[in-house]
Design a protein that fits this description.
With about 270 residues, this protein is an alpha+beta fold. Among the domains are: about 40 residues, LysM domain (Membrane-bound Lytic Murein Transglycosylase D, Chain A, Roll); about 45 residues, LysM domain (Membrane-bound Lytic Murein Transglycosylase D, Chain A); about 100 residues, endopeptidase fold (from Nostoc punctiforme) (Alpha-Beta Complex). Helix content is about 25%, strand content about 15%. The chain has 7 helices and 10 strands. It has a 6-stranded antiparallel β-sheet with strand order 5-10-6-7-8-9. A two-stranded antiparallel sheet has the order 1-2. A hairpin with an 8-residue loop joins strand 8 and strand 9. The protein is globular and about 55 Å long. About 40% of the residues are buried. Its EC number is 3.5.1.28. This is Secretory antigen SsaA. One of its GO terms (molecular function) is lytic endotransglycosylase activity. Pfam families: CHAP, LysM.
Length: about 270
């Protein structure tokens, strides 16, 4: 009887240790308005695929109030998305990156990036590792041209009918409504503007550096980034965009001209 009691105690101790280990290895996160899988992954230093696998999520949609399990021991605020080129050989894609931006930062051309990584198109994803061959650090990047400056094609046959959950009067709030007015709906769960390119790519939208009427122009500059709606592409290559909360207070629509020399500094969500 004493031997049996010892065995039970030993097994119980192992189970307790395992339970304690599991508790340390996962965190519960309750989704808030405006959050997306990408913002949550960035917050905890995890990947989108890890979040989807841990929570049996097949798509990319999450909802306010939903509880997400975050596996791993990373603390909030740690992010793998801050990785950059290592010894000029590899680069880890961050939210909002594009091939043109990465090429410019690492002194290579878009064609070189595509060949080095066997890419058939311009779509890349946050967390993806790219090989950088022959980088010099100089600004020698080239940008793919766009032969279709008409209405955008929404990739992946996505169709959203979400209500606008972005903060009222912000650039994201305005662009969500403006795209809806144009008949090209987008998700209300892409988070801050700086995350939109990566989130849109994962939702099946085409994202590149080629502007087109109806596309969303995205910048990752600043704390939150910024998005605008492309109203027209002019003959001289400049753009007319509409937006909120750039040169005006929240809730006030404004228009701005983007010079042709600056057009390819942005990402465009089609």
């Amino acid at each position: 009887m004493k031997k049996f009691a010892f065995a039970v105690t030993a097994v119980s101790g192992v189970a307790a240790l395992a339970t304690h280990h599991d508790a340390e290895a996962s965190t519960q996160h309750t989704v808030k308005n405006g959050e997306s899988l990408w913002t949550i992954a960035d917050q905890y230093g995890a990947s989108v695929e890890e979040l989807k696998s841990s929570n049996n999520i097949s798509g990319n949609m999450i909802f306010p109030g939903q509880v997400i399990t975050v596996n791993g021991s990373q603390s909030a605020g740690g992010s793998g998305s801050q990785a950059t080129a290592t010894s000029g050989s590899t680069y880890t894609v961050k939210n909002g990156d594009s091939l043109a931006v990465i090429a410019q930062q690492n002194g290579v051309t878009v064609d070189q990036l595509m060949k080095s990584n066997n890419l058939q198109g311009y779509i890349i994803y946050p967390g993806q590792t790219l090989n950088i061959a022959g980088g010099s650090g100089a600004n020698t990047s080239t940008v793919p041209t766009n032969n279709n400056n008409t209405q955008p094609t929404q990739g992946g046959n996505q169709s959203f009918n979400d209500q606008n959950l972005y903060d009222w009067g912000q650039c994201t709030y305005y662009v969500f409504d403006r795209r809806g007015q144009a008949g090209s709906s987008i998700s209300t769960y892409w988070g801050d503007a700086k995350y939109w390119a990566g989130a849109a790519q994962a939702d099946g939208y085409r994202v590149d550096n080629a502007p087109a009427v109806g596309a969303i122009m995205q910048s990752t500059a600043g704390q939150y980034g910024h998005v605008s709606y492309v109203e027209s592409v002019k003959a001289d290559g400049s753009l007319l965009v509409s937006e909120m909360n750039y040169n005006t207070p929240p809730g006030v629509q404004d228009y701005r001209t983007i010079p042709a020399s600056e057009v390819y500094n942005y990402s465009y969500i089609h």
